[in-house]
Design brief:
This protein is mostly helical. Helix content is 63%, strand content 3%.
């Protein structure tokens, strides 16, 4: 028994069907995403132009670039914010003098401040993760607390132990020395939250709002007992 030949529209429809099972939760990176990542990597680099103030005997610098890291997480979210920081770090590793004071190259990654540089990745991820759960309201007090957790606590949690290891400094002494950064970093936290609040009010949708894990767990438990 013969069958009728398929029409062009039928072939087009068939070719548009997915070739495999869908992968829920996987998000494609668009050209807009790539542009945003590049812009914030450039912002972090630009904030290094004013230079840095070296503190302590090892000369760990205070720099405005941490502000760019916080803004990347608070405005782009965990994924894109971390990718912006990763792009910046990759460019530094490639030899571009993008760190404050015109520093760059692989030598940076054996210096005393490398832990803080790598801690930027964790900081941007924490801030971005929390910001997605603070939206759409983005209340100031929770935003300040979470941004401080990511931009200060998370960065220090990586930076201080690595500093102690590289310089053979007791961890307690290294932590005490890091206290000189706190006031400046606290100011950066406030600036980040104020800027992010204005950006998210003007351009909603930059970060997709998500529920807190405990809220989702409570809802699932309620559904199970209903």
């Amino acid at each position: 028994m013969s069958t009728a030949p398929s029409t062009g529209s039928e072939r087009d429809t068939a070719s548009e069907q997915p070739s495999g099972p869908a992968r829920p939760g996987r998000r494609r990176t668009t050209a807009r995403d790539l542009a945003q990542i590049a812009v914030f990597a450039a912002l972090i680099a630009a904030l290094g132009v004013p230079g840095a103030i070296p503190l302590g005997p090892e000369g760990v610098p205070i720099t405005l670039q941490t502000l760019g890291v916080m803004l990347a997480g608070a405005i782009l979210g965990a994924r894109k914010g971390s990718l912006a920081v990763l792009l910046f770090i990759a460019l530094v590793a490639a030899g571009l003098p993008l760190l404050s004071g015109g520093r760059g190259g692989l030598g940076v990654f054996v210096g005393p401040s490398v832990g803080y540089l790598l801690g930027w990745l964790l900081g941007a991820a924490v801030i971005g993760w929390a910001t997605a759960r603070l939206l759409p309201r983005y209340r100031l007090v929770p935003a300040l607390l979470w941004t401080a957790l990511g931009g200060i606590v998370a960065v220090y949690a990586v930076g201080i132990p690595v500093f102690a290891l590289v310089t053979a400094t007791p961890i307690g002494l290294a932590a005490a020395g890091a206290a000189v950064f706190l006031v400046g970093d606290a100011i950066k936290v406030v600036a980040t939250v104020l800027v992010a609040k204005g950006v998210h009010r003007a351009w909603p949708g930059l970060i997709e709002p998500k529920p807190w894990p405990w809220t989702r767990a409570a809802a699932a438990s309620a559904d199970g007992t209903a």
